[in-house]
Amino acid sequence: MANPPPPHSGPPSAPAPAAKDEKIPTEEQLVLDLCNSELREETLYLLSKNREKFQQDIAPLLWHSFGTMAALLQEIVAIYPSLSPATLSQAQSNRVCNALALLQCVASHPDTRMPFITAEIPVYLYPFLNTTYRTRQYEYLRLTSLGVIGALVKVDDHEVIAYLLSTEIIPLCLRTMDLGSEISKTVATFIVQKIILDDAGLKYICATRERFFALANVLAQMLEGLVEQPSPRLLKHIIRCYLRLTDNPSACHALRTHLPTVLRDGTFNDFLEKDLTTRLWLHQMLHNIAMANSGGGAPHTGLNRIMGM
Ligand code: TRP
């Protein structure tokens, strides 16, 4: 490999203007500054922007330092009044999103993840997922909040899933899958995928026909949207969700008649040309449904539960 270029390649005599962020205070100093209301906005920005660059993981520092989590929660609840009626400015949205990015560090770190859940911090974000406005500042808020939940489900942990199910995150994800931007739809669908890949999650969503159809309908509706506006990543998560649903006999049976035709008629073939994994998932899903269709099918009791028959 070639050597990397020297860090400063300009003429040695010309002093470069000091870059604004060349002298960032230490992470310890910044975390302390969060408790100073005058410094807080700038500090949230600096910590969030540099969160990957610090010498040490900032998650334990954020979690264990005095007053820090309280300060971050304060940032969050401070904008609740701007959710209804909708008066959130872009600056307010940026500020709270920086606070949310720090919460995402805490949610991602193995040592702080469970304390974060035990303290019920995630539910403070739920009002942001419950909004229906499509303007940029609310969309950014939704996406960043989903990022925190996404960080929690990234590692497969039954305890995390059980917690999220108990807080009724699923209807909130469905809402974003219904009306979010493409990127927040993708994150919300990823979260639902991770939840139903857990056995308790699959059982939860298949427990009543209302729940099953709430998910199936929003998946079908997103597929419709993809015909006009392709998104390979979103399609991948949608197909993985359908495949997982076929692991439940009653859901599999219900999908015989409720699978969108676009998944059967090759609408997405071009799209999936380069994605062998998703193609295999789709194939496996269609196979599972076909098997439920032929032969004995799902046990009658399973059918009863989902189809309400
Ligand atoms: N309390 C509702 C239920 O348990 C929550 C809910 C609403 C829900 N819509 C949903 C759960 C859709 C799963 C899917 O059913």
From TrEMBL:
<comment type="similarity">
    <text>Belongs to the CNOT9 family.</text>
</comment>
<feature type="region of interest" description="Disordered">
    <location>
        <begin position="1"/>
        <end position="23"/>
    </location>
</feature>
<dbReference type="InterPro" id="IPR011989">
    <property type="entry name" value="ARM-like"/>
</dbReference>
<feature type="compositionally biased region" description="Pro residues">
    <location>
        <begin position="1"/>
        <end position="15"/>
    </location>
</feature>
<dbReference type="GO" id="GO:0006402">
    <property type="term" value="P:mRNA catabolic process"/>
</dbReference>
<dbReference type="Pfam" id="PF04078">
    <property type="entry name" value="Rcd1"/>
</dbReference>
<dbReference type="InterPro" id="IPR007216">
    <property type="entry name" value="CNOT9"/>
</dbReference>
<protein>
    <recommendedName>
        <fullName>Cell differentiation protein rcd1</fullName>
    </recommendedName>
</protein>
<dbReference type="GO" id="GO:0030014">
    <property type="term" value="C:CCR4-NOT complex"/>
</dbReference>
<dbReference type="InterPro" id="IPR016024">
    <property type="entry name" value="ARM-type_fold"/>
</dbReference>
